[in-house]
Amino acid sequence: RDFVAAARSKAVAECIFDMKDLGLLEEVRPGIFTLEVFTPEFCDLLERELANFAASGLPSTPPNTMNRHGVVLAELGFSDRFVGPLVSGYVDAMAAVLLPSRTRGLDSHRAFTVLYHASEGGDRDLALHYDNAEVTLNVNIGGDWEGGEVSFHGLATEPESDADLATVRLKRGWGVLHAGQELHKALPVTS
């Protein structure tokens, strides 16, 4: 049963069509979409906030079991007034149209940052994995570097095929939306 109101779904579908026409949304391959998410000014503000938090010396939870450097955004108080509205107002609506077989409405979220760095001891890459999520939105807030593309390998529930392979390089402020079951990895950051 579909719980998204038909009018809302139609309006989002029309917006998505317009975003594609304007070059603000691209389907890399079926099930993988890149889109502009944040402005450079917002990325600057978020980066400054993350740097201030890191400089504070306050304890933080690692973002996940595979990365050592990053912040769970709920620990900074970003859930109620930033991440929650982003997920419920935008990500959920887009996922309902772009990935309808993957969600019937997002009921939770876990937002975090990961700091990739080419230096010794930094998180340089991320091994092939899938996410414990209905859908995932990864966004580049940190700018430009060499390497660090996201490589996709198909759904964890399906046999791997060359047709499933895709690599995405995200500009600052841009994100990639995909099913959580999509196998993916971050290629090494080299500089």
Task: Explain how this protein is built.
This protein is α+β, with helices and mostly antiparallel strands and 191 residues long. It is 28% helix and 20% strand. The strands form two sheets. It has a four-stranded antiparallel sheet with strand order 1-2-7-4. A four-stranded antiparallel sheet has the order 3-8-5-6, with no helix packed on it. The chain is globular and about 50 Å long.
In short:
The protein has 3 helices and 8 strands. It has helices at residues 6-21, 40-56, 79-98, and strands at residues 25-29, 32-36, 126-129, 135-139, 150-155, 166-168, 174-179, 182-186. Strand 1 (25-29) and strand 2 form a beta hairpin.
Query: What share of residues are in beta strands?
Result: 15-25%
Order of helices and strands: HEEHHEEEEEE
Overall mean pLDDT stands at 89
**Structural class by secondary-structure content:** alpha+beta
> How large is the count of helical segments?
3
**First-to-last CA distance:** 48 Å
- Which sheet architecture does the biggest sheet show? 4 strands, antiparallel
Bin the helical content. Answer: 25-40%
Low-confidence stretches: none
User: Reading side by side through the largest sheet, how are the strands ordered?
Assistant: 1-2-7-4
Q: Report Rg.
A: 17 Å
Number of strands: 8
Shape estimate:
globular
